[in-house]
Amino acid sequence: MRAAASLILAAALLAACDRPAAEAPEAAPPEDLAAPWADLPPVATGPMASQGGGLPVDEELAAERELQMTLPRADHPLWRTLSATRIWIDEPTQLYRAAHPPEVRRLDGRRVTLRGYMLPLEATTRIRHFLISPYTPVCLFHPPAEPNEVVEVRLSRPIEAGYHLVEVTGRLRLADNGEKGLFFVLDRASARIAQRIE
Questions:
Q1: What pLDDT digit, counting tens, does each position of 123-142 carry?
Q2: Is 173 within 8 Å of 185 (Cβ atoms)?
């Protein structure tokens, strides 16, 4: 019961931060990010890259990363393709930025199927909006993976909420949400629970 209350509170907090797409349309990634992607350094910050930098939050994230690596993962080939996207933090704005390599840009607008673990963004038993990543979520208060390992999902019909392994099919769209660190969206998607996590 306590875990369910925590889940509802965390999902409500995340949902409160979410703006409907009609209020804040996302622009297509700028073309200038396409060309220099190979010259950019890989992301050196964030929960999955943290190896402990002496700060309490770094140590906490490193411990979560270590635990996460012992749990089941969704080994789908599309995750390897998406993770080729280079992510960095733009120092002046303190926002995440992404540069998509050609193999990722070719997927923009295509219908794809992807398996991953659900992280609900709505505080209901059936949801239409959630994140998926290849990693089993271990903490509601930290991102489940790096920005190039997370896909935002918007379903046509709701599905049972949880931390299930799901298979999602929809139109992949490259996004540019540096504030939230979301660069991939599956729109008008359908989903099924591949493995129920209780």
A1: 899 999 999 999 887 766 66
A2: yes
